[in-house]
Write a structure and sequence with these properties.
A three-stranded mixed β-sheet has the order 1-4-3, with no helix packed on it. The chain has one domain. The protein starts with a helix and ends with a strand. About 30% of the residues lie in helices and about 20% in strands. The chain has two helices and five strands; from the N terminus they run αββββαβ. A hairpin with a 5-residue loop joins strand 3 and strand 4. By secondary structure, it is an alpha/beta fold.
């Protein structure tokens, strides 16, 4: 009985620890009013990740004692994903990106 309890306890503790890879895509949340054709032009520089974390780390789902249960990571570096999402948002709104 004690052996079964210990095995069950370890299964619950280590079974919850995992890493999930996510990808993100820009999804407009409402009706967008774009710029008239050729009306606006935007220059976008490089996006720099200054968070002090690994390049693909988003966060962790934590338990009651602040223990990480699940780690959330992206499939590409976060700065590249944000840059792509920003460019997609400009494109959807009809803004020219230089």
């Amino acid at each position: 009985m004690t052996k079964l309890f210990i095995v069950s306890l370890f299964a619950m503790i280590f079974g919850g620890c995992s890493t999930h890879l996510v990808s993100m895509k820009y999804q407009p949340t409402g009706q967008l009013i774009g710029n008239p054709a050729g009306d606006a032009s935007v220059n976008v520089g490089r996006f720099v990740d200054e968070r002090g974390e690994e390049s693909n780390y988003l966060g962790a789902i934590r338990g009651g004692y602040y223990n990480p249960l699940k780690t959330i990571r992206t499939d590409k570096p976060v700065n590249e994903m944000v840059e792509a999402l920003f460019a997609d948002a400009l494109r959807v709104r009809g803004t020219n990106e230089n």
